[in-house]
């Protein structure tokens, strides 16, 4: 993802990730019981990362000036981590 320039862009990326996580949940529900437990754990970790990122985004409501730059940078780092975790989880479905 290129660096977000607005809160709206950040919200859009989080919504897209939420949809991707929901797709993984659907696939995990069709896995064997043993495999499902492992996949569910990874999905839960993705959800936690997404929720933490959502909280950072909520902090933007109060951010201005320099604070915006810090929040934007923090969002980018957290987004990169979430996206890497998603790709790793998605690979488990291949």
UniProtKB/TrEMBL annotation:
Record's compositionally biased regions (Basic and acidic residues): 1-39
Region Disordered: list its residue ranges.
1-40
Tell me the protein's name.
Coiled coil domain-containing protein
């Amino acid at each position: 993802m290129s660096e977000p320039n607005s809160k709206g862009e950040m919200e859009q990326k989080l919504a897209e990730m939420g949809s991707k996580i929901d797709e993984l949940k659907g696939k995990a529900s069709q896995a064997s019981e043993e495999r499902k437990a492992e996949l569910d754990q990874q999905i839960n970790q993705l959800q936690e990362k997404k929720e933490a990122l959502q909280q950072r985004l909520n902090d933007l409501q109060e951010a201005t000036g320099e604070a915006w730059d810090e929040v934007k940078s923090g969002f980018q780092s957290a987004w990169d981590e979430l996206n890497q975790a998603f790709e790793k989880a998605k690979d488990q479905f291949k």
